[in-house]
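Hey, quick one: can you model this chain's 3D structure?
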Amino acid sequence: MDRKLLHTTRMPIRWSDMDAMGHVNNTVFFRYMEQARVEWLSQTGFTVKARSEGPVVVNASCTFIRQLQFPGEVEVRTYVGQPGRSSFETIYEICRTDEPDVLVAEGAAKVVWVDFGLGKSTPLPEDLRQLLRSQIT
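Sure thing. Here's the predicted structure for all 137 residues.
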């Protein structure tokens, strides 16, 4: 898949991110990806806030490659796939900042633009579609 790095963010690994097994719980990886997605959307001007329409994640996945443990910091790299009529795919790479070339997880989330009043998908705003297309290699 052709993709271009859109956004990079860093987050601390918090003590509370770990579970009884002594590693970062699998659910926390989805929070890392969510934070990166929200930051990227906000940076583009499409803030995630209540209004008549907006982005909704309809599918999310994560492949866990290595364990993460406290203390440390993660870097989440965000990429985007080709936009569809009402949706686009976001792709993530997660690594520790002290080992930037070692991937600890890969993830994805399909984002659908939704008309909240109608409760169904609606075409992506044209300016968002153009932004997404311009960010694909």
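One thing worth noting: The longest strand covers residues 99-115.
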